[in-house]
Amino acid sequence: MTPLFPIPENHPQRFVLHNEVHARAPFILNLPVRASHLALLLSIDEKQKEREHLIKLCERFGVAPPENDADHYAATFNSFQIRWEQHGEFSTYSFYVHDTPNDLFSDSALKKVPVDWLSQLTGQIIVASHAAVVFAEDISYQETTDLSTLSDHFAGNPVIGSKVTGGAASVFTDFRIHVDGFSRFLIVNNALRSEQAGRLVQRLFDIEDYRVMALMAFPIARSLYPALNKLDRQLYAITNAMTMTDNNDAELLDELTTLAAQVENYISSNHFRFSAASAYYQLVDQRLNDLREVRIQGIQTLGEFLKRRLEPAVNTCESISHRFTSLSKRVSNASQLLRTRVDIIIERQNQGLLTSMALRAKMQLRMQQMVEGISMVAITYYAASIIGKISESLHALGWKVNPEVVEGASIPFILIIIYFSTQRIHKIIASTTE
């Protein structure tokens, strides 16, 4: 792209990041419309197979396939429209058909999709839902009508609903999976524009997807509750033993280390699931706020119904996650306290050992000094004896010397010489060690 102005070159990701706000744009739907929605959990290998399977559908109808790195795709085929999105853990397919049959949900949009292609979809179904956007006169609906008549579309179940999008539509559901394996949304069009209809249907499908994904952490949280209590009791037993005077600190430290490893293993194994549950719940709350619900007298709104059931489950997950984090900190504090005590005991033992070594060294020094004194006397004795022998030899040769006097007189001089020689040797050793 040739710049019109002399400005620096574009960042490689500038246009990708700029256009991200236009990604996953909702369909502009021609009303009335029926939609079927599938959300499938996929592994990494299945995600690549999924893309290849979608390309086969495009080739079958002669439609341009998605790009290799695309994570969303929308296209119009002969009798239906498709919207595909690939998320981190799951992928969604939404199929749209623009008409109003006699039975809104039995004659679903999926009937327009090739059966052989549907049967070969990869992954596991986590959400399956039908939606129908109809005019009020198509189902003889009026705001003053007894809402119990709407339950016929939901197999007689109690209906939940509200006015949404500033009163442009009314949404009804029972949040149940029916005999066909699908949940249902009935949208009564009061004054919906095509763009609003697309956003509304997409929000309802998002609520269904994200609320189920948020609840995936709930069974894990309930299964971890006994293990968490057991670990908590183990920590209490260890910390209680730490207060006893006759405990074995080394064994307690080993137990604490094992307990810390178990706690961290639980945290690392389930951190993603609990974090994802919190993120999905925030998305559900955001989508509910986007609906701008207004109460219809006599029935619960979607937000009231979901939050009353979804919020306690999510709070349970957050509580379990918080308790594990708190337990990890408590184990760490106990380990640090016990290590400090063990270090103090070892330091005292080392100090006693050093004191004992210093005493032994002092005793050795005293013994060495005593031996050194004895050695000086012995050296003096032998040196004086040598001088005496020399004097005797000189006396025998005719020298006028008294050997005994010479030997006796030499002793003080020999002691002085030995003393200063010893001091000289001490100085040399001291200067060498320094």
Termini separation: 76 Å
| Main sheet attributes: strand count, strand direction, barrel closure | 9 strands, mixed
Question: What is the helical fraction, as a range of percent?
Answer: 55-70%
- In total, the number of strands is 9
* Form type: elongated
List the quaternary state of the chains. Answer: single chain
Number of domains: 3
The ordered H/E elements are HEHEEEHEEEEHHHEHH
Show unreliable segments: none
**Cα-atom radius of gyration:** 46 Å
Q: Taking strands numbered 1, 2, ... along the chain, how are they ordered across the largest sheet?
A: 2-3-4-1-5-8-7-6-9
What proportion of the residues form beta strands (DSSP E)? 5-15%
Q: If you average the pLDDT, what whole number results? A: 86
Structural class: alpha+beta
Number of helices: 8
Question: Which terms would index this structure?
Answer:
Methane Monooxygenase Hydroxylase, Chain G, domain 1, nine-stranded mixed beta sheet, alpha+beta, single chain, 8 helices, 434 residues
How is the secondary structure organized here?
Elements lengths: L13 H5 L14 E9 L2 H18 L10 E5 L4 E6 L3 E8 L17 H5 L4 E12 L24 E5 L4 E5 L9 E7 L4 H22 L1 H26 L6 H43 L2 E2 L6 H95 L6 H31 L1
Parallel strand pairs: 5-8
Antiparallel strand pairs: 1-4, 1-5, 2-3, 3-4, 6-7, 6-9, 7-8
